[in-house]
Amino acid sequence: MPVDLLSGLSVALAPLLPWPVLGALIGFALLVVLVAALRRARGTLLRLLAVIVLALALINPSLVREKRDPIKDVAVIVVDDSPSQAIGDRRARTDRAVEQLTERLKRFDDLEVRVARTGEGAETGGTINETHLFDALNRAMADVPRRRMAGAVFITDGQVHDVPQVPAKLADIGPVHTLLTGDRNEGDRRIAIVQAPNYGLVGKSVELTIRVDDMPGRQSPDAAVTLRQDGGAPGTIRVPVGRDVRVDLPVTHGGQNVLELEVEAAKQELTLANNRAAVVVNGVRDRLRVLLVSGEPHAGERTWRNLLKADPAVDLVHFTILRPPEKQDGTPIRELSLIAFPIRELFEVKLDEFDLIIFDRYRRRGVLPQMYLENIADYVRKGGALLEASGQGYASPLSLYRTPLGAILPAAPSGQTVDRPFLPTVTDVGRRHPVTAGLPGDRIDAPPTWGRWFHQVDVAPNGGTVVMQGADNRPLLVLDRVGKGRVAQLASDQIWLWSRGFEGGGPQAELLRRLAHWLMKEPELEENDLRARVDGNRITVERRSLTPDPRSVTLTDPSDSTSTLQLADDKSGRAIATVTASAPGIYRVSDGERTTLAVVGAVNTPELADVRSTGDRMQPVAEASGGGIHWVTDTDSGPNPGIEVRRTQADRSQSGSGWIGLRANGDYTVTGVTEVPLLPVGAVLALVLGGLLMAWRREGR
User: Fold this and answer.
1) Where are the transmembrane segments (predicted)?
2) Beta strands 655-656; 659-663: pairing state
């Protein structure tokens, strides 16, 4: 049982008898001495001296000296490398403060200094919406016992987003100080998206709520906001400052509809990065209306119906010509049909309401007047979609090519057909086109694994792109753009063989799905396009093209700095490059012809919500841990610039005007022990015997 005297020096008690026995003996001896004292016997003091010496001998005290090696305390400097630190002179002040602080801490031999940065690990692709300084602190002191922590110093602009909800728990790591890198009384303007839907119906508008704020106070009653949708022509509106404003966004197409908003600069501005915002609304179609016109019943007709009816989002109108006008069999007219088919309503009145029109093995029979076919051609030129699946009739004089539709069809019939087995194959261009690229079963260096067809109409392309070929490399699937619309032509009516599983079947469902989506201008099926995809803080730029394009692209970041990206072609129509974003905001990607946007971070990222330098967020931490909050600008001048650092005791003040304290814990490890008895045996026996003899002699007088 040691008793500390001085640092490294203590007295250890090792009794020769158990404490209860020892206590009883000492108590009995003292009682005898007490009785002698009450009787005024001579030699009482000498007996008491002998008892005390004997008691000390039985307690067996020894002097213990420890050889101690001091353990260094640990101080952590947490450096804020978040994007808001790039504003003004903050980055330069941060670097100077780190250098000055590190240099001053070197003079403390009992202190280990660790530097943690929030930018470490940014390459992993995580989001950069917030500044997490306490995460960096926890990583830096993960292997350090709390008794060794001297404290921490945060060098930041004060916009910290992971401050603990219970700051008092930080008291055991020592004082937490904050050095603010910004300027006092900063001002800034920002635009925020208050409310925005994620999805909208194509052809309708969605309502957004935006807000412009001047911080700290109102600098002007209103501000001009520029709006640009999908990189188009800009428009300007004026909105009141400090109030929610509603804006309508028309959803013009499927996929991503991007609306950029940019507010004019105010008198006080720290950064223009938060003067811009972007909203991404995914356009979805409510109901796809498809008109299927079958010229005559055949085995493949059910394939089209099954494909279109399987999708609950498709409204299918199927028009089949079962009895051409020239057929005369004596059946009374009143028994041919219960309800007359609404040809005029479909092909004249409500034609523009359809998203896709399909002609399947259609030939002129006098059922659809030329005027209605002209209406369909105009419908395509204005932005509609037409798919023509050719049958035997396309090679005959009754071909659709000899109607007003011939002006928009991409392939002219030669009048011949091929009636022998052949294997449909994807062309070299088709392997770069999103409709046919990577079809299941297609192989580059070997024949595809799908089944054969047995009939094909011989056609000669007069425009468009041949993505599949059939017998003798004749065009089989041709895609073309006409005006604002699109046309696809399949020079065979035997895709149904794949759906029946003949010779293993084929990817008819995937091919027809892609074909329909390309015709209806779904963005993911665009063959010449530039797009950007965001995953965390990684931006993947992808350019689709039917021919290899060696051009690089220009990336413009939220601070309007530009860089060049070289895309790598993967031989499937895509050229890709990946870059790590350094800050949240809107990134613009351009190849000289097309422009796309990448929105990094949340719609209203906390990193840009308020970029003013402030100590308000860190104040509770400073109060709970005993730390202080100081402005770098206050200590960055004079003959000895930089904050002063002192080693302090835990019960003393840890911060003052122009200085900060780091706790001195005095922790150590014991490397050796030396033990020396305080009462040698010979001296004890001499004292006890001498005291007893003198007491006996005293009593004998």
Assistant:
1) 16-38, 45-64, 678-696
2) antiparallel
Q: What's the token pair of residue 372?
A: 């209605």
Assigned token pair, 151: 């404290």
Which structural domain range is residue 414 located in?
288-322+337-519
Number of domain units in the chain: 5
Residue with tokens 């404490």: 19
Cβ atoms 426, 472 nearer than 8 A: no
Q: Which of 53, 56, 61 is nearest to 691 (CA)?
A: 53
Least Cα distance to 577 among 559, 585, 589 occurs for 589
Which tokens go with 635? 């200590």
Q: pLDDT digits over 244-276, tens only?
A: 999 998 988 887 888 889 999 988 888 888 888
Could you tell me if residue 332 is inside a domain? Answer: no
Residues 61 and 81 in one domain: no
Instruction: Give the separation between CA 691 and CA 694, rounded to whole angstroms.
Output: 5
DSSP 453: B
Q: State the CATH number of the domain containing residue 658.
A: 3.40.50
Q: For residues 294 and 601, give the distance between their C-alpha atoms in angstroms, rounded to a whole number.
A: 50
Q: Quick one: tokens of 302?
A: 């059910």
* pTM confidence score: 0.69
- CA–CA distance, 638 with 640 (Å, rounded to integer): 6
Both structure tokens of 19: 């404490």
Question: What digits encode the pLDDT tens for the residues 73-119?
Answer: 999 999 999 888 888 899 999 999 999 999 999 999 889 999 999 86
